[in-house]
Design goal:
Strand content: 5-15%
Strand order of the largest sheet: 4-3-8
Number of strands: 10
Structural class: alpha+beta
Order of helices and strands: HEEHHHHEEEEEEHEHEHHH
Radius of gyration: 30 Å
Family: Belongs to the phage portal family. PBSX subfamily.
Number of domains: 2
Region (Disordered): 1-21
Number of helices: 10
Protein name: Phage portal protein, PBSX family
Pfam family, one: Phage_portal
Organism: Edaphosphingomonas laterariae
């Protein structure tokens, strides 16, 4: 028997508004605070499972907004470069057929790698045979509520329903639903966004000119107006034309009357490099791309090894499985629309 929810009392509501932070003493001076009990991360990591592919009685919406994935494509140079590398290798290995051109295949591969979905528009002759294969942008293509139907939704007013059997879909499997595919890099998307945030923060740091980064600690006796002059000089050190020199003259000042205390300048620089390197490694791990194939400069003297051997391993472990994914289109259409050339390994060349 399920328990009914009860209304909180005024005391419980007052305590709830204060959150998990509670004061540990009643002193009116310095107060110490303690946080509540630790909460497991998995409680929030499962938020994606609560999303549903809701529909408007015509088509289903994807569990992750495709518009957001499209904007996130260029969020990090390593993220976009890894996707473009896979697309170029797949397109170079394609053997074009009378039904599928290299241009159409490249566009479909791009959609599959970014959105986890690739939609092919099948144009048939009067006898029902495959005449030509086009591409329908995954960003605007939606699976219809009626089985076998798809919709073209570039906006909320210009939607068009494709004829039944017009669209063939290739999806990256998801563990929570079977309506849409999802890309493999979602686990590293937060790292890619953090990489962008670190870059934007550093760029704003240089653009706004606020490079003081120190405390001027003064304890000596100064003449009337000297402190105001120092404030004005420090204020003018910001903005365009920063990194200016500053002269302070205190004729009757003591030896330690003025102290310049830097504020975590070196630490901030090290933190920036650490964030960039760590997030880069996360993105490369999600895409499973060797760093030497993306032009990354090695930090050690030994380097990353032979790029040709790395390409052989990457092609066997990553590109060939992706080729097998797109061969499923042949099974859906009943013709050999997708065909790949056999690659000669660098060791055998």
């Amino acid at each position: 028997m399920s328990k009914r929810a009860r209304r909180m009392s005024r005391a419980e509501a007052r305590d709830a508004r204060s959150g998990a932070i509670e004061a540990s003493n009643d002193n009116r001076g310095i107060q110490a605070f303690s946080f509540g009990d630790p909460e497991p991360v998995l409680d929030r990591a499962t938020m994606l499972e609560m999303f549903e592919c809701w529909h408007n009685h015509r088509w289903y919406e994807p569990p992750v907004p495709f518009h957001g994935l499209a904007r996130a494509f260029r969020v990090s140079p390593h993220h976009s470069s890894a996707i473009l590398l896979k697309r170029n290798l797949l397109a170079a290995s394609l053997d074009p057929t009378p039904w599928l051109s290299r241009k159409t295949f490249m566009a479909a591969v791009m959609d599959y790698l970014v959105f986890g979905n690739a939609f092919f528009e099948i144009r048939r002759n009067r006898l029902g045979g495959v005449l030509d294969i086009g591409h329908s942008l995954a960003k605007y293509t939606r699976r219809g509520v009626k089985p076998g139907t798809f919709w073209w939704t570039p906006s909320q007013r210009d939607e068009v329903e494709y004829p039944e059997g017009r669209i063939a879909a290739i999806m990256a499997p998801d563990i929570n639903q079977e309506i849409y595919g999802l890309p493999e890099y979602l686990s590293a998307l937060q790292s890619a966004l953090l990489n962008e945030s670190a870059t934007l923060f550093r760029r704003r740091y240089y653009l706004n000119g606020s490079h003081a980064g120190y405390i001027l600690y003064a304890t000596g006796q100064f003449a009337d107006g000297d402190v105001d002059k120092m404030k004005e000089a420090l204020k003018n050190a910001k903005g365009p034309g920063n990194f200016r020199n500053l002269l302070l003259h205190a004729p009757d000042g003591k030896q330690d009357g003025l102290k310049l205390l830097p504020i975590a300048e070196a630490g901030a620089k090290d933190e920036f490099l650490g964030i960039k390197n760590t997030t880069r490694d996360d993105v490369l791990a999600a895409h499973r791309v060797p760093p030497q194939l993306l032009g990354i400069v090695p930090a050690n003297a030994g380097g990353f090894g032979d790029p040709a051997k790395a390409l052989d391993g990457f092609f066997e472990l990553e590109i060939e499985p992706l080729q097998a994914v797109f061969l499923d289109l042949n099974d859906q259409l009943g013709v050999e629309a997708v065909r790949f050339r056999e690659r000669v390994r660098a060791e055998a060349a």
